[in-house]
Design goal:
heterodimer; A: alpha/beta; Rossmann fold; eight-stranded mixed β-sheet; four-stranded antiparallel β-sheet; 35% helix; 26% strand; globular; B: alpha/beta; 28% helix; ATP binding (chain A); ATP hydrolysis activity (chain A); ABC_transporter-like_CS (chain A); nucleotide-binding (chain A); AAA+_ATPase (chain A)
């Protein structure tokens, strides 16, 4: 459905764009219908940039992204609008996604005006109610101001906003990082239910436990390159790349305490990023970057 | 040794006073790292901040705080000044914004020390030694904050906050904004400083129970401005008695738990408004065990050595 083919991104900086920084290196993956794929990496790994390129919020410097066999960089006007009816994003901070002056329902009116103007009132109401029910909210919630709702509720509203359209793919960029543990799991379970109904999700996160809970496949990014990619069982159960292992080792577990030696290993964070190399198939559904 | 009794801190708002901290009592022993956890708005950060400096909107309503047997005048901003940095210190949530971006780190530290009537040059060797303990070379003192990563800045602030060996350190969400690898290093640094005696007692405020399970000796769980449960870390993690603690732990996805195989339940509902909190147990509306008696406020009582709970059903729970 979505194909990201050898995509790279170069940011230019300096007075005349003289300085170049390549932040995404030949990222190549595919998302199938009804599949949840997690993009996992630390800050600066390029996970958000990849998500933004798919949403066309950032341009692609090299390679191409196709959605249902259509190159998204060429979309204009009606074509682009139709793309956004099928692909939507939800981002980290729900509070800054809403205008605090207006009631939250305004977001839905905007969507209707932009995308669903041809729908009559009854059909719109049905669609709206359906989307809100899917995320476990009442229509009455639309009459509230953002400050009257919790972060989890706002985040669910934003997901409902995407569901009002006929979306096939949702880019969820750190959507639960700012939420409390108890509301976090509600949003995660909601994503799981939506996936069962056939929605594809790209789940961008730095939290390995969250990625593990929800995903079919995992992509580990380091400094803009994929270092390991495969089914969740393979990548978490049998990590091959040293970077994946170091990430997994650093995840705190509730029932298992780090040893003193482990905890106090305070040497400078080693910069293990190595560029170059290529992805090889370690096993079926499990790619690992090797350096020659 | 820190002893807090019946502390009440309210926030002034246009709608009335928000009872963010509504009578909490607890103690932190020497050499103890106490984790303070709960959801946003439960009062954990308010508690942490109140012990060092009341913000303008924060109103001291009652209670007492004693550090090493001496009463801390937390309600009096000026009288608190001699205690800050020397006796009580804090590592704030966003160390990134705690450092002056226009100064090299070494110079900024010298200026801060000068403001407290101390000389930077005499403390410099100790400063460098402690930076080295946390894996930072003295070079960082010649750098600007922008040249350091978030985890490095967090560690620099930690060294600075504890330079005068305070009795109590409050670490407010210090690991929350960091990646897993730096998170582990900062957590390790907290333990290292306690073990070396640079800090006597520590309160680690966080919403992340998994990190507390790694470093804390005891954990205090707060809910809606009240204490819910306090116990040694192992007891909280393995045998929690308060239904809220149980639900909170049950909503944590750990590596290995998958949605397809095991759907975690979460906690229904929202915490009550603290403008006019309900009488009785504040968790009652969301609690699966709630019964008639919960309209009365449960006392925060000891059900086993070092294990205190505020729940009418805690006793039965701990046994069964």
């Amino acid at each position: 459905m979505l194909k990201v083919e050898n995509v790279s991104k170069v940011f230019r900086s300096g007075a005349f764009g003289g300085k170049k920084a390549k932040v995404i290196h030949d990222v190549d993956f595919e998302v199938k219908p009804g599949e949840v794929v997690s993009l996992i990496g630390e800050s600066g790994s390029g996970k958000t940039t990849v998500g933004r390129m798919i949403l066309r919020l950032t341009s692609v410097s090299g390679g191409r992204i196709t959605f249902e066999d259509e190159d998204i960089s060429t979309l204009r006007g009606a074509g682009l609008k139709s793309y956004y009816r099928r692909v939507q994003g939800v981002f980290q901070d729900p509070f800054s996604s809403f205008n605090p002056i207006f009631k939250v329902g305004r977001v839905f009116r905007t969507i209707r005006r932009e995308f669903l103007g041809d729908l009559d009132a009854a059909a719109w109401e049905a669609r709206l109610t359906g989307a809100l029910n899917a995320v476990g909210l009442e229509v009455a919630a639309l009459d509230k101001f953002p400050h009257q709702m919790s972060g989890g509720q706002l985040q669910r509203l934003l997901i409902a906003r995407a569901l009002v359209l006929d979306i096939r793919l949702l880019i969820a960029d750190e959507i639960i990082s700012m939420l409390d543990a108890s509301t976090r799991i509600d949003v995660l379970n909601l994503l799981g239910d939506l996936k069962r109904q056939g929605l594809s999700i790209i789940f961008v996160t730095h939290d390995l436990a969250l990625g593990n809970y929800i995903s079919d496949r995992i992509i580990i990014l380091q400094k803009g390159a994929i270092v390991e990619m495969g089914t969740t069982d393979r990548v978490f159960g049998d990590p091959q790349h040293p970077y994946t292992r170091s990430l997994l080792d650093a995840v705190p577990h509730l029932h298992e305490r780090w040893s003193d030696a482990e905890l106090k290993d305070l040497g400078l964070v080693a910069d293990t990023a190595r560029f170059g190399g290529h992805l090889i198939e370690h096993r079926k559904d499990h790619l690992v970057r090797v350096y020659s | 040794m820190l002893a807090v009794s019946d502390l009440k801190i309210h926030y002034r708002t246009l709608a009335g006073s928000v009872k963010a901290l509504d009578g909490v009592s607890f103690a932190v022993g020497d050499g103890e790292i106490m984790g303070l956890a709960g959801e946003s708005g439960c009062g954990k950060s308010t508690l942490g901040k109140a012990l060092i400096r009341l913000e303008e909107r924060m109103m001291f309503v009652g209670g007492q705080v004693a550090l090493d047997g001496e009463r801390l005048p937390i309600a009096d901003d000026r009288a608190m000044n001699p205690y800050r940095f020397r006796k009580v210190s804090i590592v704030p949530q966003y160390a990134m914004s705690a450092l002056n971006p226009t100064r090299r780190i070494g110079r900024m530290i010298d200026e801060l020390l000068a403001a407290r009537g101390l000389k930077g040059s005499t403390l410099r060797p100790e400063l460098e030694r402690r930076l080295a303990i946390l894996g930072l070379t003295p070079d960082v003192l010649g750098m600007y904050p922008i040249e350091l990563s978030g985890g490095m800045k967090q560690r620099v602030v930690m060294v600075l906050s504890t330079l005068l060996d305070p009795s109590l350190l409050i670490a407010d969400e210090v690991t929350s904004a960091l990646d897993v690898a730096s998170q582990k290093k900062v957590a390790g640094a907290l333990v290292e400083f306690r073990d070396r005696g640079y800090v006597k007692s520590m309160i680690v405020v966080t919403h992340d129970l998994a990190i507390l399970a790694q470093i804390a000796d005891s954990i205090l769980i707060m809910y809606a401005g009240k204490l819910a449960e306090k116990a040694p870390t192992r007891t909280i993690v393995e045998a929690p008695a308060h239904p809220y603690t149980r639900l909170l732990l049950g909503s944590l996805p750990e590596v290995g738990i998958r949605f397809e195989e095991k759907r975690l339940p979460g906690i229904k509902g929202r915490p009550p408004s603290l403008l006019s909190p309900p009488v009785g147990c504040r968790f009652r509306d969301r609690c699966p065990l709630a019964f008639g008696k919960c309209v009365e406020e449960p006392p925060f009582i000891e059900i086993a050595a070092g294990h205190q709970v505020a729940c009418w059903k805690a006793d039965a729970h701990a046994q069964g």
